[in-house]
Amino acid sequence: MMTDIDELDINPFYRALQTKFLSAYEEAQERCYMICIPKSSCLEGAAISRKLIETHILRPSPFFKGQFTTLKSDSQLLVVDDNARFISTVEVKTNIKIVGEELGYNKEYKPYKMLIVARPFDNNLLQFRPSENGASRIEEMPIKFTLDGCRDFLHKHTDSKLYGVICERCGQEDSALVTKCSRLRGLTPAHLSVPKHFSLPMESAVQEMKTLDKLETPIEKLYCLKSSIDKITEEVNTSVHKSQSSTLTVDEIPCLTSDDLIPILVTVLVGAGCRHVFSDLHYMENFYWLAASRDGDSLNYCFVTFKAAVLYLMDTDFSDLDLKTDRPSPSTREPDMQGSVRYRNSEPLKSRLDRQMDDISRMDFLASLQDDMFLTSGKQT
Amino acid sequence: MPAGAMSGGGELQNVKLMLLGDQGVGKSSIALRFVRGEFTENSGATAGAAFLTQAMRVSGQTIKFDIWDTSGQLRYHCLAAMNYRGAQAAVVVYDITNMETFTRAVDWIRELKQLANSQNVIVLVGNKADMAAEKRTKGQSFAEENNLIFTEASAKTGITNVSKSRHSTQTARSKRKTRKGF
Ligand SMILES: Nc1nc2c(ncn2[C@@H]2O[C@H](COP(=O)(O)OP(=O)(O)O)[C@@H](O)[C@H]2O)c(=O)[nH]1
Ligand SMILES: [Mg+2]
Q1: Where are the transmembrane segments (chain A) (predicted)?
Q2: Close Cβ partners of A207 (under 8 Å, ≥ 6 residues apart)
């Protein structure tokens, strides 16, 4: 696979193996251990530590096929799926996607496997260097603040328990959204005044978005948003290429912009009908900084755009919309486009919903969550 | 030397650049210019022109721009912190034929300065320069008073001015050490 060769050329983990941690690499080669290489995009800005390296070199279990322990510790158990599509970490119960595979040969010409995986087995092993030249970034302070306060706490609890508590707290909003989505079945981008050439069924994006419910960690959920948005882009590009005549100049070929992406995402949300959208938002927003979310900047962009779509969906009264036809609501067809459905002309405004979201995202949300968690764990034991 | 910091012999630097400004001033058109214009080589457009990355070499340094076009993302105040997080450069756009959008641009800049670290770069762009008979001076003098980089541009007729505004961002970054805040 071409992409994997390119990937290894630029992969900081792989480079560290060949230089700083050469002895570990040589040991792995000699004994034909399996080396799992987190893909470059999730390592951006991270320092590669010995611990990270040793956690990703896997020794096959002498007893069970498909089971591995790490070079770092005999007790860290991993299972590689038969079709080699996932690696599961037994302790924290997550599935990590295998995105590529390479065979290498050692000095005795025995093969060893290198798997390129979607993310590190444990994101807490990544330490990010402060950005060079001291250019500090807006808004990093609050993140550090929460990080220090909550990391210990979070380590004591499993993701699923935490998620359960969030779902309990956001239950009302979640079910309101489910109801709204089912009422809006059949909503197309055209209803929201997206230009005709972008108003497509978006089936593959809907299917992708549907997996959101099943995913467990915040980072997996984030990647799901990103792939849904990627699918939207693909659908648009495919359709544009099919339907445009070759006489158009580059400037005339339609190109998806931010203005169209959000309403399209709204229709994808409606189509997918996910059951915990609001909970997922909070889960991702409050906890994904524990994970390595440096997939360029695009994960952040996808999250903000997704959140804007969810807020828009919650906040908009679609009652004047005629879902049987493919036309935008009457108000959106007015020349000044100040209809309730179209947000194009709206200014940043602090709505009731907005204030609610502000409240809920503040730190006391985390603090009260912590109380809830302890209560829940108390009940169970 | 930490692993991953080298790229083609130069330091790799990530810059998140946001396009801000009122609805209709031409942010998306500027983003489209990046996608379609001379910057298309090696550009990665994640979602059309909504989010794109663009690597450029500037005086021996490779700078990777993550360019965020914004629209509905700005509608909700609660998204502001998320939007601005990590942003090192903002291009605030107004429409030179519509002074209301200039007032809004000034608001954006005020908000940015509250949030921003003094190291961040703000570029003020007076867009739709093709529509004006004579050159306006309002943006220029505001920019001078407030220590911003200013340029007039037209997303419609050409990219030269727009690319200049981007170039200024880089130049400003390299000049930053000698400059004191905004
Ligand atoms: N004449 C002229 N029109 C422009 C220019 N830039 C954008 N426009 C037009 O202004 C309108 C709004 O542009 P758009 O990029 O969607 O603005 P946004 O809302 O800020 O993203 C569109 O009709 C564009 O064609 C420009 O430089 N000159
Ligand atoms: Mg726009």
Answers
A1: none
A2: none
- ipTM of the predicted structure? 0.74
Residue matched to tokens 């037209």: B154
* B50 at A interface, C-beta within 8 A: yes
Residue nearest ligand 1's atom 9 by CA: B26
CA distance A335 to A346: 15
Q: How far apart are CA B56 and CA B15, in angstroms?
A: 11
Predicted pLDDT of residue A265: 93
Q: B53-82: per-residue pLDDT in tens? A: 777 777 777 777 888 888 766 666 666 666
Residue B67's identity, in one-letter code, is I
Scanning B52-81 for CB atoms below 8 A from A yields 53, 64, 66, 68-81
How far apart, in Å, do the first and last CA atoms of chain A sit?
A: 50
Among residues B153, B130, B128, B150, the alpha carbon closest in space to that of B138 is found at B150
CA distance A133 to B69: 26
Total count of residues recorded for chain B: 182
Number of the ligand 1 atom closest to the C-alpha atom of B25: 20
| CB-based contact B47 A259, cutoff 8 Å | no
Confidence of residue A266 (pLDDT cuts 50, 70, 90): very high
A26 touches A43 (CB < 8 A): no
| C-alpha closest to that of B17 among B120, B90, B111, B70 | B90
B180: pLDDT confidence band, cut at 50, 70 and 90?
A: very low
Q: Is the confidence at residue A131, as pLDDT, over 50?
A: no
At residue A280, the pLDDT reads 92
The stretches of A76-170 forming alpha helices (DSSP H) are 140-155, 159-169
In this predicted structure, what is the pLDDT of residue A196?
83
C-alpha B25 to ligand 2 mean position (Å): 8
Q: How many angstroms separate the CA atoms of A14 and A119, rounded?
A: 14
> Can you give the pTM of this predicted structure?
0.61
Determine the Cα–Cα distance for residues A161 and A168; give it in Å rounded to an integer.
11
